[in-house]
Design a protein that fits this description.
Strand order of the largest sheet: 1-2
Largest sheet: 2 strands, antiparallel
Order of helices and strands: EHHHHHHHHHEHH
CATH topology of the largest domain: Tetracycline Repressor, domain 2
Length: 228
């Protein structure tokens, strides 16, 4: 695996956070950095207050407690993910290219320092925040599965794939797991390194090739159908 050293969690917040007033946004940014760096349990409101450079009363004026801050941070991350993937442009009739584009975009998100940090903290705190963990799933993997399923439905109608009896939702879930599984595991277990762009391309391509070999119809067969 081609890896590059990294030891930093990005501290930007999604555009949706712009709806907050300046003080609340400052606190949310600080909370994001503290939670993604230290986790929920080790984080304290004092740490967030110092990171934000505001008074404790300012923190509590916008967020009732640490749990409320944590919920706001994860919800903002989910919104950022959804905004990013919905901006992807698709190419009808070009399933292989579309899946490659989706795989690359998804890996760029989930393998980023912040993407990995969010995953770690949500999984670690899932038993304490089950609804929030579910929200994270619905806004992340489920969004991608739905997008891929829509593309597979179009591809099946045009003869690009044969999904047999498994259906588009199951096929889409299998594809997403092909994309995310090994790359995410490697990055989670190599916390001091980051994959190179070439490595991400290789992972994305491997997932697409494997999926298309399993479900893709031969191009010449598709061409004959389109001419008949």
């Amino acid at each position: 695996m081609q890896m590059q050293r990294t030891n930093q969690v990005m501290t930007t917040l999604p555009p949706s956070s712009g709806e907050l007033n300046a003080k609340a946004l400052t606190v949310l940014r600080a909370a994001r950095h503290v939670f993604l760096t230290h986790g929920f349990s080790a984080a304290t409101t004092d740490m967030i207050q110092r990171e934000a450079g505001v008074s404790k009363s300012t923190v509590y004026a916008h967020y009732a407690n640490k749990e409320a801050l944590f919920t706001a941070v994860i919800e903002a991350e989910c919104a950022a993910f959804t905004n990013t993937v919905h901006g992807i442009e698709f190419r009808p009739g070009k399933l292989r290219e579309t899946l490659t584009m989706l795989a690359r975009a998804y890996l760029d998100i989930v393998l980023s320092p912040s993407g990995l940090a969010v995953f770690r903290v949500v999984i670690a705190e899932g038993p304490r925040f089950p609804k929030l963990a579910r929200t994270f799933y619905l806004a992340g993997p489920q969004v991608m599965t739905t997008m891929v399923a829509e593309q597979l439905a179009n591809a099946a109608a045009s003869g690009e794939v044969d999904l047999g009896e498994i259906g588009r939702e199951t096929a889409a879930s299998l594809f997403i797991n092909l994309v995310r599984g090994e790359p995410q595991l490697q990055c989670l277990t190599h916390p001091d390194a980051a994959p190179s762009s070439a490595q991400i391309d290789q992972w994305a391509n491997a997932a697409v090739v494997t999926f298309m070999r399993a479900y893709g119809r031969r191009e010449e067969a598709s061409s004959k159908r389109s001419r008949s």
